[in-house]
Amino acid sequence: MLRAFEAAARTGGFTAAGRELNVTHAAIAQQVRALEERLGVRLMRREGRGLALTPEAQRLAERLGSGFETLRAAIAEIGAAAEARPVCVTLTTSFSSFWLMPRIGEFRACHPDIELLFSPTSEVVDLARGEFDLAIRFGHGDWPGLSAEALVVSSHVVVSTPDLLARHPVETPTDLLHLPWVQENGTDEWRIWLAGHGIEAGPKRDVHHMPGYMALAALREGQGIGLVARVSVAPDLAAGRLVALFETGDDGRTGYHLVRRPGAMRANVATFVAWLRREAGSAVCAD
Known about the structure:
By secondary structure, the protein is of the alpha/beta class. Helix content is 45%, strand content 21%. It is built from ten helices and twelve strands. Strand 8 (181-184), helix 7 and strand 9 form a beta-alpha-beta unit. The mean pLDDT is 87.
């Protein structure tokens, strides 16, 4: 009601106010009449072909004009502050090392004005807290209450170096119990994978937990076997440095997903998301 009245008072009529607010002149008139009833005073009266403000309306219009301008300035300041904040992304250490870091230089070169903040962790961060704009998570893309889109589709593979495999032949999943495992911090995927194949792992001391980027390096050095996303070791498999023992999750849905809260994104976040989509598309074509 106040917005309709302020526009009518400033433009001198219901028709002009309706054009400004993208509604009909009848809608403006209805809102002004509702405001008059709410305040219990007459605000506008016909005068010739236009409208005249009563003394009460004149005082109200002046206050509203300055009030709306103050609101617009405050909103603009908040918007500017929001755009100045870094684009905050939570993601796994392995994904950041094998996929994002080799590519991020191109984004920084094209968008030097956009500040980025990455938090590599195996923990699933609650995006509802608002601390992070985006997450890159491995899974099927079914996180309730969040918007998720596939970036890089990838199965899971159990890998070993040829030398380790020569010393400890593997024919069935049960044989994996006799080999050391390399596992990313904060996860228990090796035990979950074995349980999915009907194998109870029990206590096992030779499981080495470390950050994702270290786990990939340890696997390449033959320090153990590990369950990893195929995309993370694709060059090693192609070159024969690693061997895929078992593979699961090749369903077209499993992989790394871009996850965010539903709704509009800040301009800087939208720019980074668009770049991720383009990079993921070219990566899929290259693979």
